[in-house]
Amino acid sequence: MAAYGLYTHIASNKVRSMLLLAGLFLLIYVLVFAGALVAEALTHSGQSVDYYLTRAARDLIAAFPWATIIAALWIVIAYFFHQNMIDAVTGGESVTRQQQPRLYNLLENLCISRGIPMPKLKVMASPALNAFASGLNQRQYAVTVTSGLLAALNDQEIEAVLGHELTHIRNGDVQLMVIAVIIAGVVGFFGELFFRMFTNLSWNSSGRSSSSSSASSDRDSKGAGGAILAVIIAVVLILLAWLLSQVVKLALSRSRELLADAGSVELTKNPDAMITALRKIENRGELPGATSAVMELCVDNPREGFADLFATHPSVDNRVKALVQFAGGHDPGPLALPSDSADASDQPEESTTGQSPVSRGPWGDSGEPAGAADSRPGPSQGPWGRHS
Known about the structure:
This protein is mainly alpha-helical.
């Protein structure tokens, strides 16, 4: 458990990254074949399934170079501009030592202690408590933290979170995750494109069939079974490709989060800081407006699939238990933050008569100016205030 930069884990991530890229091209070819199958079925009615399959295969061979070029172009664009896309979604902005001396020094000290090149540092304005690492190479690596995290965590806890993200970078988890996001994006784009094409062609085909002669309609109806079956096969292929693009996330073993937690402990020598950081982040990490792809990069992803099947992160409880068992940390249990009580106090109080309360002191409303009564001790403190 207490391992940083496990060579077997890094090598496995590199192999899986190459396999995922190869799988991306395969999924695109499947989508092209499915799209050709739909087009052939809608433009050449009354044929057998074998006819449609043969024609779709020929279309795939003809479109093969173009599909390959489009997939490669998508990868190139994602390689160079994925960080800009992430920043556009999250609103993360690069910061310097002068802007964030506390955060910058903590990250720099961790990098110097292990001879790790320092990644870019970004801060996003959000009350959520979360952080994530991104990038595909040394020049692109970046660690982004939320302003809410900086406000809620102390220096030791922030250092633990930064160590967690540095471990993700060192272990190659970031590259693998970004590639998985690219695959899901490509397949989603092509899937939506083909479904739109199917809808349009279906509408046009129905319009033509309504104006055809009765003899032609009888002939088409006899061979309609082959076209319908071909369309069903195409839809199944498209759905299968989309499902595989989502299941790709399962290749991102959830053990990567446990290893990153362990790497943070080895960097900071402070398992309790990592535990308390997780407890503070727990159920407070949802980034408003962020896509699932971005949330999967974060320290904690509170979004979970049905029955936890497609959850990309182990639960905080399981991660804390691992740190307690293998790193000797101490679990304080779920932690309440001052912001929690502040959120509750933001709700206006209402009296039983429906009138807003006007007095906070023990003497009722004295007609004092606004703010004067607020400075007076409340009933829970007594008329003389709180004694230290």
